[in-house]
Specification:
200 residues; alpha/beta; Rossmann fold; 35% helix; disordered N terminus
Length: 200
Amino acid sequence: MKRPSPIKSESKTNDSIKILIKEILKFNKAHNIVGRFSEEEILSLDVLDCETILEHINPSQKVLDIGSGAGLPGLIIAINQPKTQITMSEKNKKKAYFIRKMIRTLQLTNATILDKATTPNLITQNKFDVITARALATAPSIVNMAEHLLNRGGKFILMKGSLEKINEEVAQLNNNKYSYTIHKKNTLNTNRHILEINQK
């Protein structure tokens, strides 16, 4: 799948990413929201890593990013794909505050923050075409906590690590309800795979 052409100018996107990196680092010194200590680390281990998800999300889709942390990948999606409506779910108040601050600072009209945990009992105003998560929980756990929030024909796009671990997780999925595809990503500093889980 080709990466959609960005609607924002590339320079504006790059400027927003630079601001985000600086703000993460500044906020991190007081509140420890990511385990990084330099702009270079955040760029290579977080930003570039999160950008691997973009080609799997079409513009104009409604996306829910569960356990968004410092807004990764939620804010990265919102910055790069301004026609994508992104909702970030983050129960940690400090992290949710940071995401809300960045939405205001970067004037992201396509992004909102939901400062609640995603559970099987969560009710949202809208359902979603795509549900994402990065380093949150096993694939079956994520499906269990959020499948009721998917639109019909919607899918999970999960950022995962080793292939061995992914194979263990997908073996526990309900084959009658879901099919999956594993996409290997060529990243320098992370062992990154994207697990795409589709409703049957």
